[in-house]
Amino acid sequence: MKNQLQFYKDIHISELKRKSEIDNSINFPTTLLTLLLGGGFYLFRKENIDFTNGNILSYLIILGGIFFLLSIISAIIFLSRMYLNRFRKYKYLPCSLDLMNRENELYHHFFNFYKETKVKNPKESAIKDADDEFQKNLLNYYIEFGTHNQLVNDGRIKDFYWSRKILILAIIFLAITALLTLLN
């Protein structure tokens, strides 16, 4: 039981560390997004684009701008979901006082039970059984919370992956649109 408890405790702790690593990984995409927005605003200024002649390049520039804008909005949505934990909360162990109260509650339950059933050494039996039951409770906490946190982290990683892919698309759309603007 002790090895099993330690195993699930390690999983729970590793998912909380993974949460911090995911939180720290948002800096680069945010910086890239800011630069892309700045580049987009610079590229789509009135003096850079002449839409009065109505040639095919003007329409391609507009189309490129629309695709760029859609990709930026999509990237913002995925980065927001990632940053806000996919709108889900992480689960943590109860505070130390609650855990201690639970342990005392288990002890008193078993002590009263063994006292009523007239078991020899009710105190020792109650301590042993309360400890065993408390270890089971902890194991259940670690399994439940570790699983929940892992699912949240996996979803956040998927959102991060998609936001990076979409940001690469935004770079491509911006570059193509910039080339078309130069040709116009």
Automatic annotation (TrEMBL):
UniProt KW keywords: Membrane, Transmembrane, Transmembrane helix
Annotated transmembrane regions: 26-44, 56-79, 166-183
Record's protein name: PEP-CTERM protein-sorting domain-containing protein
Organism: Pustulibacterium marinum
